[in-house]
TrEMBL record:
Record lineage: Bacteria, Pseudomonadati, Pseudomonadota, Alphaproteobacteria, Hyphomicrobiales
Keyword Oxidoreductase among record annotations: no
Record key words, sorted: Kinase, Transferase
Keyword presence, Transferase: yes
Entries under Pfam families matching the protein: AAA_33
Record's protein name: Putative kinase
Molecular function via GO: kinase activity
Length: 174
């Protein structure tokens, strides 16, 4: 399964992706990490970060892993490309739009978070608020993180995705 997360910076995508990956034993593919490491190599990023992420995701899907794709994913072209990765591997894709409906909470997150990727400069509130999402071609599952713990959000997302609880129990065994 390919779980495709999309959402504005500070919406809770990466927190959710990490918690979900731990819970499911899934592979977390984070475009921010890939793009920053390309920058650290002194190379212009352009579309390279997403192209690398698609390849890493596809390799891991071919090995039978659940993959969680973590990126802003605001463009139709990137969402199509993620779905194409799943199609080529013959696995289901679930598009999740992660939102924080509480503007005060969202702004606080954006303005106070610390980057865990060396060298990555997080966008500020002005650029986050100005970001536009192109229309969705498919109907994403919307997850609101406002006022909720990552753990509760993960439980709700697993339920919404109808991931088998027996599968999760196997992944959590020591």
């Amino acid at each position: 399964m390919l779980i495709i997360l999309a959402g504005l910076p500070g919406s809770g995508k990466t927190t959710l992706a990490k918690a979900l990956a731990r819970r499911l034993g899934a592979v977390h593919v984070r475009v921010d990490t890939i793009e920053q490491n390309i920058r650290n190599a002194g190379v212009e990023v352009g579309p390279a970060g997403y192209m690398v992420a698609y390849g890493v995701a596809e390799d891991n899907l071919s090995l039978g892993h659940i993959v969680i794709a973590d990126s802003v994913n605001s463009l139709t072209i990137t969402r199509r490309a993620w779905r194409a990765v799943a199609e080529r591997q013959g696995v289901p894709a679930s598009e999740i739009w992660v939102k924080c409906s509480d503007k005060v909470e969202h702004r606080h997150r954006v303005e106070t978070r610390v980057s865990d990727v060396p060298g990555l400069i997080k966008p500020g509130w002005t650029s986050t608020e100005a970001r536009i999402f192109e229309d969705w071609e498919t109907e994403p599952l919307v997850i609101d993180t406002a006022g909720r713990s990552p753990e509760q959000t993960v439980v709700d997302l697993i339920s919404a995705l109808q991931i088998d609880q027996d599968f999760i129990a196997v992944q959590e065994e020591p």
